[in-house]
Design brief:
The chain is an alpha+beta fold and about 170 residues long. It has one domain: minor pseudopilin epsh fold (3-Layer(bab) Sandwich), CATH 3.55.40. It has 1 helix and 10 strands, in the order αββββββββββ. A hairpin with a 6-residue loop joins strand 6 and strand 7. The model has no long low-confidence stretch (mean pLDDT about 90).
Length: about 170
């Protein structure tokens, strides 16, 4: 007489398997959330670097915002912090600034710029290619004294990413 083959799992085997899976999930979720936050921060940093380069290229090409008018002189294009979690790209002509684009960072991401300055890229007809750090919204713009580079810090939780802009126009990490 042979015993019938056993089909399925015992209750004890199922409880042990579910317990092991539950423990793995409990440890995996925080790691995934940290990974996801880090990826959002990297994406925000890459977008900001791209926006800095766009701003610089617009200024060097001498492109004016439509609101500037044909007779108004272009001062440059600049980026400034609007709020703790957003920044704006502006075109600056004599007497006015025009907001071209506002960027809101991912939830929980903050932005700070050393000295809370505006980073102004100037057109080629200004005579100098140096990047201007200071208040770009007044005529004439007021420089931040002694600043040779601006440091932009993006922070999310305990992680941060830093972008630097030199007076020469170099944008780097």
């Amino acid at each position: 007489m042979t015993l019938p083959a056993k089909n399925g799992f015992t209750l004890l085997e199922l409880i042990i398997t579910i317990s092991i899976i539950s423990i793995l999930v409990v440890f995996a979720i925080p790691s995934y959330r940290g990974f996801q936050a880090n990826q959002e921060l990297i994406q925000a940093k890459d977008n900001l670097k791209s926006d800095l380069r766009f701003t610089q290229s617009q200024a060097l090409a001498g492109i004016k915002a439509p609101s500037c008018g044909a007779a108004t002189k272009l001062i440059g294009w600049y980026i400034r912090r609007i709020a703790i979690n957003s920044y704006g790209i502006y075109a600056r002509c004599v007497g006015q600034s025009s907001l071209i684009k506002q960027v809101n960072l991912p939830t929980g991401t903050t932005l700070s710029i050393s000295g809370n300055v505006h980073i102004l890229f100037r057109p080629t007809d200004v005579g100098t290619q140096d990047v201007f750090f200071g208040n770009a919204e007044v005529d004439p713009p007021v420089p931040a004294l002694g600043l040779s580079e601006a440091t932009i810090t993006l922070t999310k939780g305990t992680a941060n990413r830093i972008i630097r802009v030199r007076r020469t126009g170099d944008v780097y990490e």
